[in-house]
Amino acid sequence: MTSLLEAEGLSKRYGRHRALSDCDVSVPAGRVAGLVGPNGAGKTTLLQLAVGLLEPSAGTIRVLGRRPAEDAAELARVGFVAQETPTYPNLTVAQHLMMGEALNPSWDASLAEARVGRLGLDVRQKARSLSGGQRAQLALTLAVAKRPELLILDEPVASLDPLARREFLQGLMETVAEHHTGVVVSSHLISDLERVCDYLVVLVDSRVVLAGDVAELLAGHHLLTGPRRDISGLPANQTVIEESHTDRQTTVLVRGRGPILDPAWTARPLSLEDLVLAYMRRGRAGTPGPSNRKGLEVVA
Amino acid sequence: MIEFHLDPTSGVATYVQLIQQVRQAIRLGMLRTGDQLPTAQQVVAALAINPNTVLKAYRDLERDGLVRARPGLGTFVIATLPPTDPKAQARFLASMAKWLADARAAGLDPDDIEAIYRTSFRNAFSEGSEGVA
Predict the structure, then answer these.
(1) Do B52 and A218 touch (CB under 8 A)?
(2) Where are the domains of chain A?
């Protein structure tokens, strides 16, 4: 099957500012991919390149195997919810749905109405009087009702309270379960996406510092603690991602598949959040990432 | 029908938690042969998790011969889990007790012993056996 998103050497500059530098990313079909990174890392730039709102300065990006927004057919295959889940404040819920129907040839009116009904939205209400959570759900409804193959969402839950956040993600996951829609969703908080994404791309300072299947990433990293020592004795199949020492103790975050047999090390699994934070620190420090291994892509 | 609950602090992968809960429910008789598991959509709607996670759990349960997916109908329990052989349990309990006594006699304290147990458990179940650890 065709990848959801495929970028090669993708870069975007604004004058001298690099918004995105030499990104290689491949998100396989059928995934819910989380795009995580600090504010200003380039998440929005990458997503806007993916929906054709921006043109690359260098490199290529393909979405569902084709150039973003190449023609009307390609536009219909991708649903986009921009940052702040925008709606039209002066239009009612019903008018939003009418507009969606008028603008999208593949519009599924019964799906849109069913969704609005399930959410308990009053169709006569203007968008400006909806709560943040309701507005986000309305924006999601508009994107979902065009029956896209891929949904791209830019920080959809950032401004929502915890309950609205959970409800939004439930709605999103129901869509994935029902229509097998691929998803690329960004957030500056991994905790927002941990439950839903099975593929992860971490952006720091305009670069991809980590990308891969979530389960493989978790299985492939360990935190080792032990008495202070030189870490050059670690097995060759373990790559050191981060190390710290106190006068007596050494802590190392390693990447590698084999078991750690040396009894001096206590090996612990990491949470996804700790893993992402380590790569963020490393990315910020400007250290190059480890080389490609075992089907996980890591790009320096 | 059972409901799933997630423990986010357990450090156990979500799909493994789902598998454990189904196995436990079968073992305790809360799920019997012919009973239906919640659909992926129901689980997703309740827990806000990725449907692939549910499908992965159900695939593993199917591979183990506990459930069968019937296209268009759902996933159904097709087997019961025999309780673990009590003789084997007793035998390993006894050898563990002896091992612990030896370890204490050698001067290891409970933390040492737990560290050894955890390390060897992880090594035994992570090498070659996909995902279980």
Answers:
(1) no
(2) 5-213, 220-285
SS3 A13: strand
**What is the distance between the alpha carbons of residues B22 and B26, in angstroms, rounded to a whole number?**
6
Q: Where are the alpha helices (DSSP H) in chain A?
A: 43-50, 72-77, 93-103, 109-119, 132-145, 162-179, 190-193, 214-219, 272-285
For chain B, list residues whose CB is within 8 angstroms of any CB belonging to chain A: 6, 11, 13-15, 40-41, 44-54, 115-116, 118-119, 122-123, 126-127, 131, 133
- d(Cα A216, Cα A148) in Å, to the nearest integer? 28
Q: Extract the tokens encoding A25.
A: 């990313």
Closest among B121, B100, B98 to B112, alpha carbons compared: B100
**Which chain A residues are closer than 8 Å to B50 by Cβ?**
32, 173, 176, 195-198
CATH number listed for the domain at residues A5-213? 3.40.50.300
pTM of the full structure = 0.82
Residues A261, B14, B59, A178: is their CA dihedral positive or negative? Answer: negative
Q: Is A79 exposed, middle or buried (0-12, 13-18, 19+ CB in 10 A)?
A: buried
| Contact call for A195 and B49, based on CB within 8 A | yes
Q: Is B81 helix (H, G, I), strand (E, B) or coil?
A: coil
What would the mean pLDDT of A76-83 be, rounded to a whole number? Answer: 94
Please report which helix (H) or strand (E) contains residue A244, including its range: strand A239-245
Instruction: List, for residues A149-174, the tens digit of each pLDDT value.
Output: 999 999 999 889 999 999 999 999 99
Buried b or exposed e, range A198-232, using 16+ CB within 10 angstroms: bbbbbbbbbbbbbbbbbbbbbbbbbbbebeeeebe
B17-41 residue pLDDT tens: 999 999 999 988 889 999 999 999 8
